[in-house]
Amino acid sequence: xxxxxxxxxxxxxxxxxxxxxxxxxxxxxxxxxxxxxxxxxxxxxxxxxxxxxxxxxxxxxxxxxxxxxxxxxxxxxxxxxxxxxxxxxxxxxxxxxxx
Length: 99
Fold this sequence. Notes:
mainly alpha, 6 helices, globular
């Protein structure tokens, strides 16, 4: 959880440091990050395979998941089930890379 907190704090710092017009341009990324953060912090129990996949994100958890989110227009993060499905897609991609 410490890594998630650190990444989230750094993300907020980067956003707050931007000019107002630039913040508006990244509002989708802000919404995405807050939805994923809420899931990761408040979900009762994160499955072990999801924890393993998230720890393996070399570029950072939020960047890694946001990249997948941008690749597929049908991915949403409005509910915890949708965030969980996004992490499952991360797992699938990691398994494909490993094989």
